[in-house]
Amino acid sequence: MDARLDYSSNPVMAKLVKHLVSISASKVVHDSALPVTTQELVSLRVSQINGCAACIDMHTKDAAHAGETSVRLNLVAAWREATVFTDAERAAFELAEQGTRIADAAGGVTDEVWANAAKHYDEDQLAALVGVIALMNTWNRLNVITRQPATGDYQPGQWG
After folding, report:
1. What does the alpha-carbon distance between residue 39 and residue 43 come to, in Å, rounded to a whole number?
2. For residue 83, is pLDDT > 90?
3. What are the residue ranges spanned by the domains of the chain?
4. What is the model's pTM?
5. Sign (positive/negative) of CA torsion 33, 34, 35, 40?
6. How far is CA 109 from CA 96, 124, 148, 149, in A?
7. What is the number of alpha carbons within 13 Å of residue 116 lying toward its C-beta?
8. Which residues form a coiled coil (predicted)?
9. Concatenated DSSP letters for the chain?
10. Which of 23, 87, 111, 140 could form a disulfide with 50 if both were Cys (CB 3.0 to 4.6 A apart)?
């Protein structure tokens, strides 16, 4: 598959990507109290839902680099049936799914899902979680619309 747009050669896209990378690579979310493994697992789940192969490649590798096991990584797509995730991680996955599938659920994220996430994460962690979900959806949409391929050559930490 060939990309429809080359991010580096198009001046508008290059500027947009530069700003998104600066947000994504910032330490605000990464250094928050939201566990890095949760950040990576949620990024992976959002990317799976959106079918973003480049981001799936990236966040699978970043999660493994952060200490995730292959068993847990292989079961993210089936988190509801898997017994390897904590209640907090399940709440994060559910929030990520509803936050990603906004058009599929009238009203977006339900109060019940938000309340469940709030049982496991404090306000700063929730803010970081919402940030991860929103940024991943942005990256996924850019990559899917422009058909960015997964080349498999991503190295953990490559983008910051």
Report:
1. 6
2. yes
3. 35-145
4. 0.91
5. negative
6. 9, 18, 29, 30
7. 17
8. none
9. ---SS-TTTSHHHHHHHHHHHHHHTSHHHHTSSS-HHHHHHHHHHHHHHHT-HHHHHHHHHHHHHTT--HHHHHHGGGTTT-SSS-HHHHHHHHHHHHHH-GGGSTTSS-HHHHHHHHHHS-HHHHHHHHHHHHHHHHHHHHHHHTT----S---TTTT-
10. 140
- Whether 2 shows a pLDDT value over 90: the answer reads no
136-141: which pairs have CB atoms within 8 A and are 24 or more residues apart? 136/42, 136/43, 136/46, 136/47, 136/50, 136/55, 136/100, 137/46, 137/50, 137/99, 137/100, 138/20, 139/20, 139/24, 139/52, 139/55, 140/46, 140/47, 140/50, 140/51, 140/52, 140/55, 141/50
Token representation of residue 45: 């789940």
Q: Whose structure tokens read 């480049």? A: 54
